[in-house]
Amino acid sequence: MTQDDKSVANRLFFRIFQASNILQKQTVSTVGLTTVQWAVLGALSRSGFEQGIAFNDLTEYLIVSRQSLDGVLKRLEREGHVVRVPHPDDGRARLILLTPEGRAYWQSLQPRIHDFYAQGLESFGFDDMVSLLHYINKLQKDLASIHQAKDEIISDLNE
Fold first, then answer.
1. Is the pLDDT of residue 147 over 70?
2. Residue 105 pLDDT > 70, yes or no?
3. Residue 153 CA to chain centroid, in angstroms?
4. Where are the domains of the chain?
5. Prediction pTM value
6. Which CATH code fits 34-122?
7. For the chain, what is the mean pLDDT?
8. Which residues, at least 6 apart from 76, have a Cβ–Cβ distance to it below 8 Å?
9. Which spans in 1-99 are helix H?
10. Rounded CA gap, 114 and 104, in Å?
């Protein structure tokens, strides 16, 4: 990697960091949710999750820590949006369910969410959005492989 490549990479990761912080700030002020709350409610509202999702599966799906998810779930539980119920196949595990009130709340947010999308992507055409999604997917895959390589190195050292 040349010095110019390193400079561009540094700027790219810094811009991603800044965009993430702006996203967090704007979702709270515009939609009234943190990005993790938004992601949890969105995930639980998806088709196929009507019967709930295991806590561990939700952490993996959202790519968040157990501690972060637990804190968000506690708040959403207090607000009546989600409940934790015993897993039918594993008494020690819990399923996370969106309550009817949580589903109604999520539906009530949809106009604000779609307006947020429109404003946040105002300068993007359809092809721009598809391209950005493609590149974010590539970045996510590459970032995930860093951990795999690290785990392989640690595994090799322990052998």
1. no
2. yes
3. 28
4. 34-122, 125-159
5. 0.83
6. 1.10.10.10
7. 90
8. 37, 40, 41, 82, 102
9. 3-26, 35-44, 55-62, 66-78
10. 16
